[in-house]
């Protein structure tokens, strides 16, 4: 069985994970703050090449 | 700009995913075979191990590893299948978080597996703290820089943490595990050496194949090769399965021929979902390999089980023989010993009666001591003999409708003098059986053996109480299990030394004696309460002990069905 100090440590650790997950969910799924890493010229070029 | 991006996305003509994981966006149907196979197998072994022994830290860790790995596999499938950039970003971030966690848990797992106990808090810090930068920086550009629309690949540009830091610590964890297991292997005993070897082979192959597939994918952007990494999990599971069968690891006695058959079934089922003939060949090839390996393990496991059953049957015959011999020995010894005590008792009784002439006070005193000792010896022999007969079932009970209250009152009057001679108070709490009416306490039982029960319990209370009081109680209560039926509750409460939780387990067992009680009553045989239990069981009743809530001491209860 895990002792009390370890339980506290894991409690804090997994709470940090939970906060991080909530933040990325908020960033990408709610406010959709996504950086798109291409420009129109390169994109059109790639589409033409695909055809 | 926003409109342009949406336009670009529209031009890519990505398929819509259903249930997050099914779509035409994946590179081929083989992906479902590699992913679902790894996911289901991983979860199956994790759940099997966990539910066999939920309290074991080792089993909990293995369960966590398989759950985290299965979660990673699912997230990977979503990233492959989804057409929505926000889903790709979110699930890809989660994968970057979960993946090194699997490695950290594997490291924790191998340490507990070898040392058979939890690791220190310092080691826990050492294992999990390297994950902190990933957790803290997860929502930032250091993990994922952005969504790459080039070539409509639905690719993500990974940051420094994802490309370098995560893989570095995964390689670091893998080597830590390898070094640790090498070190432990060198100092382990032979039996443990084999287990360490298996765990090492299984877990290192799994972790290295897992990380190398992902490294190749991240550095070359060829994620198809990364699929091979997933097959490390079934290999790990194979090693675990063998260890469970051979060494009964994780406290599982039977693996499961169940799990092995399940896996074989799944492998065959997977072929139904593959439509491309080229892919079918690959799937059938893998399936054949696993069928051979698992089939071999299955046959071995069944053979082992059959051998164990035969061994058990043989041991059972030996046990029956031993029990018979023990019974004969008990009877022989008790009769011989009882005979000796009886002869000696009559000699002492004769001396006290003057049969051998006058004797002085000193000799009288010694003769009386001798007589008392012989009586106690005879009583002990009778107790052991009774217990043997009760256990064997050779005792014939003369079951009649008897007045239990009269029986209890008779025991009380038999023991009253001894109790008061010891300076203890004797109280009775005989409640009316029914308010304002008939108060019969009739039960169906053998009067002699039930008297033995009440005498024994009161005698016990007397032996183990130095000061205070002994309370003998009787009450009648309704039987909640049967309408209209009632139960009789008889109890003996003392203010004696009590029973420790450790001794409670041995209380009504053959020869069971408490460590503290033996200090008070050195002649305790451990057969008195055992006999009480056997008699009460034969009367379809219950007997148990609880601590005395009002003072130090114990309360012994006997419950019987009233008639």
Notes on the structure:
- The complex is a heterodimer of chains A (51) and B (563).
- Chain A is mostly helical and 51 residues long.
- Chain A contains two helices and no strands.
- Chain A starts with a helix and ends with a helix.
- With 563 residues, chain B is an alpha+beta fold.
- Chain B folds into three domains: 195 residues, no CATH class; 60 residues; 162 residues, Heat Shock Protein 90 (2-Layer Sandwich), CATH 3.30.565.10.
- Chain B is 64% helix and 10% strand.
- In chain B, strands 4-6-7-9-8 form a five-stranded mixed β-sheet.
- In chain B, strand 1 and strand 2 form a beta hairpin.
- In chain B, helix 2 packs antiparallel against helix 10, helix 4 runs parallel beside helix 7 and helix 11 runs antiparallel to helix 12.
- At the A-B interface, helix 1 and helix 2 of A face helix 1, helix 4, helix 5, helix 6 and strand 1 of B.
Most extensive chain-chain interface: A-B, 30 and 34 residues
Mean pLDDT metric of chain A: 82
C-alpha termini separation of chain A: 62 Å
Biggest β-sheet: strands ordered side by side in the sheet of chain B: 4-6-7-9-8
Count of the separate structural domains of chain B: 3
Structural class of chain B: alpha+beta
Give the SSE string of chain A.
Answer: HH
Q: Percent range for helical residues of chain B?
A: 55-70%
Q: How much of the residues of chain B is beta strand, in percent?
A: 5-15%
Low-confidence stretches of chain B: none
């Amino acid at each position: 069985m895990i002792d009390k100090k370890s339980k506290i440590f894991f409690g804090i650790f997994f709470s940090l994970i939970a906060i991080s997950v909530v933040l990325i969910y908020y960033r990408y799924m709610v406010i959709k703050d996504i950086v798109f890493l291409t420009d129109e010229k390169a994109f059109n070029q790639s589409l033409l090449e695909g055809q | 700009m926003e409109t342009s991006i949406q336009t670009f996305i529209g031009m890519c003509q990505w398929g819509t995913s259903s249930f997050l994981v099914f779509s035409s966006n994946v590179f081929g149907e083989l992906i479902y075979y590699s992913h679902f196979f790894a996911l289901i197998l991983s979860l199956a072994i994790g759940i099997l191990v966990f539910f066999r022994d939920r309290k074991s830290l080792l089993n909990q860790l293995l369960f966590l590893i398989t759950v985290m790995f299965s979660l990673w596999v699912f997230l990977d499938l979503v990233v492959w299948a989804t057409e929505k950039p926000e889903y790709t970003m979110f699930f890809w971030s989660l994968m970057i978080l979960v993946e090194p966690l699997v490695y950290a848990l594997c490291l924790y797992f191998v340490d507990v597996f070898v040392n058979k106990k939890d690791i220190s808090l310092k080691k826990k810090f050492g294992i999990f703290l390297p994950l902190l930068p990933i957790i803290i920086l997860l929502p930032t550009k250091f993990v994922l820089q952005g969504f790459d629309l080039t070539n409509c690949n639905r690719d993500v540009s990974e940051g420094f943490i994802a490309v370098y830091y995560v893989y570095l610590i995964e390689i670091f964890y893998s080597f830590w595990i390898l070094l640790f297991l090498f070190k432990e292997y060198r100092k382990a005993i032979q039996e443990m050496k084999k287990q360490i070897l298996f765990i090492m082979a299984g877990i290192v192959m799994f972790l290295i194949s897992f990380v190398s597939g992902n490294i190749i994918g991240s550095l070359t952007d060829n994620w198809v090769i990364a699929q091979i990494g997933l097959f490390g999990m079934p290999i790990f599971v194979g090693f675990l399965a063998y260890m469970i069968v051979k060494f009964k690891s994780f406290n599982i006695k039977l693996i499961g021929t169940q799990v092995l058959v399940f896996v074989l079934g799944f492998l065959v089922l997977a072929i139904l979902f593959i439509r491309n003939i080229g892919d079918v060949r690959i799937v059938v090839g893998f399936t054949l390999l696993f069928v051979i390996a698992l089939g071999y393990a299955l046959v071995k496991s069944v053979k082992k089980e059959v051998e164990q059953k035969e061994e058990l049957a043989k041991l059972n015959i030996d046990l029956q023989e031993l029990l018979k011999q023990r019974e004969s020995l008990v009877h022989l010894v008790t009769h011989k010993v009882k005979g000796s005590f009886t002869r000696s008792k009559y000699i002492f009784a004769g001396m006290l009666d003057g049969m051998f002439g006058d004797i002085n006070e000193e000799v009288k005193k010694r003769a009386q001591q001798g007589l008392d000792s012989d009586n106690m010896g005879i009583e002990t022999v009778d107790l052991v003999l009774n217990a043997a007969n009760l256990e064997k079932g050779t005792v014939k009970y003369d079951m009649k409708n008897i007045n239990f209250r009269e029986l209890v009152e008779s025991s009380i009057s038999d023991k009253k003098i001894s109790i008061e001679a010891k300076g203890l108070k004797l109280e009775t709490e005989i409640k009316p059986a029914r308010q304002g009416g008939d108060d019969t306490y009739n039960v169906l039982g053998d009067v002699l053996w039930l008297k033995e029960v009440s005498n024994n319990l009161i005698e016990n209370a007397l032996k183990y109480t130095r000061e205070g009081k002994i309370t003998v109680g009787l009450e009648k209560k309704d039987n909640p299990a049967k309408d209209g039926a009632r139960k009789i509750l008889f109890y003996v409460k003392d203010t004696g030394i009590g029973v420790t939780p450790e001794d409670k387990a041995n209380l009504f067992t053959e020869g069971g004696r408490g460590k503290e009680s033996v200090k008070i009553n050195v002649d305790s045989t451990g057969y008195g309460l055992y006999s009480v239990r056997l008699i009460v069981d034969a009367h379809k009743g219950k007997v148990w002990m609880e601590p005395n809530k009002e003072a130090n001491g114990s309360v012994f209860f006997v419950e019987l069905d009233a008639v």
